[in-house]
Each structure stands twice: as structure tokens, then as C-alpha cells.
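Give me C-alpha cells for this 139-residue protein.
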Amino acid sequence: MELDDVVEEIEREIASALAAGIFRGEGNVRCVLAGKRPRINPQLNAAVEMCDKESVERVAREWQSRVLKSSGRCSSGEKAWRTSIGGISRVRNALGDWLARGWLTGEKADEYFAAVAKCRRAREVFLKPASGKRRREVF
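Here you go.
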């Protein structure tokens, strides 16, 4: 392996670790219900929203997503910046590597696993015939 290749790999690793740190501090992951009854489709979403555009751009590069102005406001009164990804496989691919490397731990890892479990439960309830009582138990 050439020295340039090694340096490039280290730079990619550092960029990924920084993005994971930003997500750990400012990100969220959740299960949302997309669509209308009777075709409700649970979706796993991950997002970062903050006032520092450069930090949001770091995460967006890792996720290969866009950076958009958010509806949230910064203390300066300006709009915050946001990036997000959706879909179980896309979120799992993005966050799974960070989890495996130990870069997402504690509350943020718990949040991820809880959101995945919630989407699984919702899929069972909304994609199969279920009673109204079972639907209320999911959320």
C-alpha cells in the first residue's frame, strides 16, 4: 500500500469519527409513520440539526445527503442547518459502522436501537391486520 493511500484512509477514518461525534452530540434517530391509513409505512430516520453549517456538512458528506436550512432557529435568530437520511437500510448502514467501532455509545446507541425496535413493532401492526388496541400499544 502506498503512503498516499494510507494517508487517504486515515483522513477518511478521521472524517467519519468526527461525523459520528457530531451526530452523537446533536443528532437524533427515530421511527416515523409515513403515509395515510391503511397504507402506513414506518420509516427509520436520522438527522442532525445545528447552527454550525460546517459541522452539518461533515455529517452530510458521510451520509451523502444534502444540507438544508431548517425551520429551527439559532440564538442569533438565523435559521439552523439540517441534514437527514431515511430508510431502514440507509440509516442502518450509516450508523451501524459507527456503532461497531464504538463511536456511538450510551444514550445515542440506545436511541438507535429503540427506534429500530419501534419500526419493527409498527411494521408488524400496520402491515398486518391488527386490532385498534394493538395499534395503540406501538406508540
